[in-house]
Amino acid sequence: GAVVSQHPSWVICKSGTSVKIECRSLDFQATTMFWYRQFPKQSLMLMATSNEGSKATYEQGVEKDKFLINHASLTLSTLTVTSAHPEDSSFYICSAPGLAGEGPDTQYFGPGTRLTVL
Amino acid sequence: GNSVTQMEGPVTLSEEAFLTINCTYTATGYPSLFWYVQYPGEGLQLLLKATKADDKGSNKGFEATYRKETTSFHLEKGSVQVSDSAVYFCALRGAAGNKLTFGGGTRVLVKP
After folding, report:
1. Contact residues, B window 43-102, toward A, CB-based 8 Å cutoff
2. Which of A42, A45, A86, B28 has the maximum number of C-beta atoms within 10 A of its C-beta?
3. How far apart are alpha carbons A74 and A63 in whole angstroms?
4. A14 — phi, psi (to 5°)?
């Protein structure tokens, strides 16, 4: 099946700095990607839908200015956590819908990025 | 809104034991239901799904039946292997769109 990668797999940063997380579809093109956040022992929460060539669609309660999403190409979406604070520490996961013909139920997930803000 | 509740882990079993992970949901309309599995160091993978009431999804020896009357989609496997050690997520997709709502995940550890 299709593969989605994320980079970095983990990152530690100081409070107040910005961190960029990349999500790549390795062998297919993705006009849409999804960004999730997972707190320890909690479910994945959809943060936003990234759309190639247009603005991302954010879920209610997600700060657009804090979590900047850019979908610059058909294989790359980036999530930038700006002015990170300890409460932003979490596991961030991206996914991309399946290939044409695979139907809406197919999503390919990246392995996740663990962010720790000191 | 939609929500998914699944049993907390970790669940520790011996090889060849029977596994059940409970999952219940709240949703309007008729959602599609899924179980995803995440092996260590890998992304979530679709394990099985059911798209309407009384459907049974199955894969790799795992089964789950869409029970609308109890709003449940419990995952079962009759004889687990060490290689089944992973985190299992129950999820639903509402009638409109392709957004997924996940449960909290259940870590399963199978010991030889």
Report:
1. 43-46, 49, 51, 89, 93, 98-102
2. A45
3. 24
4. -85, 150
